[in-house]
Specification:
mainly alpha; 11 helices; 4 strands
Length: 231
């Protein structure tokens, strides 16, 4: 089944990002894969607790472990694996924040708590109905947490001819290079170098905000008038 209408997000740099909602078919197959994995792990946990622990203690430990496994499975993959559980990865879909950003722990927790309602009365009937009526194919948990399950974007291979056509660099004009030499000292250059080297280790939103602030400062300081130049 096809996904809903795409959501278009415009960043502060006026870059348009397209989010294509995943269809119910791919989501259902991903759910079956994840359900199978969780069920298999639950059987293993149950057998181990029965074999290693007394009946009373085993019942309590088993119940706690199964609760953590059932709820923690989705939260773990959504937060620490870029919104992709094994099932979603197989189907080429992922869950993201409503703006296209990675999920926070709070968002993942909310969408998985509401999963109980989506699963009612049987076979995720409420969730499937909500997806049918929502233009972005969101189940109740997605609506409550402001999340969206999207199809993976295809990798884009630019042509060499196209890459050569954008050889102009607004930071390498004689005027800007002269201003850099006169207005950016050695300590600042070392700071910017360290910032770029550490950027990949920052969370996406923190990196975006920090680079935007630094970029805004140097656009003003170096008198760079380029509306398409991002932080």
């Amino acid at each position: 089944m096809r996904g809903g209408a795409p959501r278009l997000i415009r960043t502060p740099e006026h870059v348009e990002i397209r989010l294509d909602p995943a269809g119910l078919g791919s989501r259902f197959i991903a759910l079956l894969v994840d359900f199978t994995l969780v069920t298999g792990a639950s059987v293993v946990v149950a057998q181990l607790t029965l074999a290693l622990l007394p009946m009373a203690a085993g019942f309590i430990v088993r119940a706690l472990l199964l609760l953590v496994l059932t709820w923690g499975y989705h939260v773990y993959f959504e937060v620490l694996h870029a919104g992709q559980s094994p099932g979603k990865k197989i189907m080429g879909i992922r869950v993201v924040d409503g703006r296209g950003l990675p999920l926070s722990v709070e968002q993942s927790f909310v969408r998985n708590v509401v999963r109980v309602l989506d699963a009612l009365p049987v076979g995720y009937a409420f969730g499937a109905a909500a997806c049918q009526f929502d233009g972005l194919r969101r189940r109740l948990g997605d609506i409550a947490a402001d999340t969206l399950v999207v199809r993976e974007a295809r990798a884009f291979e630019p042509e060499r001819r196209a890459s050569r056509s954008r050889a102009f660099n607004s930071l390498r004009t004689p005027r800007v290079l002269r201003l850099i030499r006169h207005r950016v000292g050695l300590e600042e250059r070392e700071f910017l170098s360290a910032l770029c080297l550490r950027a990949e280790g920052l969370q996406e939103q923190a990196r975006f905000d920090l680079m935007d602030e630094v970029g805004r400062h140097y656009r003003t300081r170096l008198e760079i008038d380029d509306p398409h130049l991002s932080g």
